[in-house]
Amino acid sequence: AEQLIKSNINGGSSLGQADAPLVLAMYTDYECPFSRRFETETFAAINKNFILTGKLRFIVMDSPLDIHANAIKAAEATKCAAEQDQYWSYRNKLSYVNEALDTNRLMSIARESGLDAVKFENCLSSGRYTKVVLEAAAESRRQGVNGTPTFMLGTEKNGVLEGVRMMGALPYAVFEQKFNDLLNKK
Known about the structure:
Layout: E1 5-8, E2 13-15, E3 22-28, H1 33-41, H2 43-51, E4 56-62, H3 71-83, H4 87-95, H5 103-112, H6 117-126, H7 130-142, E5 150-157, E6 160-167, H8 172-185
Parallel strand pairs: 3-4
Antiparallel strand pairs: 1-6, 2-4, 3-5, 5-6
Helix pairs in contact: 2-8, 3-4, 3-7
């Protein structure tokens, strides 16, 4: 049997029903091509078949890697978007962008998302979320996340996710199989 791991998922952004039987936490880096592959190739089907049907709650955990120059700023940008209640729409656009995510690019995505650009820029340049993102990254390393995307799949209680680790941009079929196996045990 796979070893069960406990993971602190406080501070993550959540999509789906709070009482969903399964929780999938994604540790992500917005400049990581493998995280992008999951977002562009796999996430829509997971959303349609498991999140929107109430079987799965999806949680995003920031895990910017040192090798990506703009990953920390990009994670901060999602938090600035959240201040304007646009976390998911901003993040979805961000996840599809292939170019370097420098400040100009982060700003243009904010404008495309219909955010108040002045407020967004003030938030981003203030660095008020830098510490939060760096702490999230450090916490993810403590959890053994050394590459993105890394997923934790299981059940959540009081902000602690107990489950199994899944590494990399796995195909949808692998997730589907895993979800169904766990749902059938419930």
